[in-house]
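Quick start: read one record
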Amino acid sequence: MIKVRKATLDDKKDFSNLMLISAPYFQILFSRRIHSVLQDLFCRHSNLFSFENVYFAEVDEKKAGMVLGYDWQTKKQENLKTGFLLFKRIGVVIICRLSLLMKFNATVGKLHEGEYYISNIATYPKYRGMGVGKRLMFEVEQEAEIMGAKRIVLDVEKNNIGAIGFYKKLGYEIIKEFSVPLQRDKILQFYRMTKELK
């Protein structure tokens, strides 16, 4: 049986593990210490990586997956603090990546009024195909409606065919594509997908 619940501070290790499953490029963006950085931000209030914005799914009382999401108002309120906390935690290394991070922030996760953003969703491999992701998506869709969002948006890497198919089955549509240069030889290509809420 799948149970979905709000995250607690005890989930910090699983949060960082699942974040890197969903976004392995975070190591390049932030630093090799990304696990400790993500865990630190997860345990703090009022930032985009906070436990306050996360749901966990459990199968037979074992953590199976998580989703990180927030609405346009939360993004507006917590974006600057998130950047400050990253700078404080990573240090001067982040200055070298500042232009990249600003480009990334201006494209990936860009929100307009009335939108709810699914930043990251991941399940551990042994729990895939059991409906865990579907339950997590259902949970954030309900939360988005309660918060007054009109639509849900997400960004998915173009080469993540499985995830794109999963989102399409749930009623999401591709509305545009964009790319973000990560390194000289690495360009991330994304689809922006959306679903209107009733």
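The mean pLDDT is 93.
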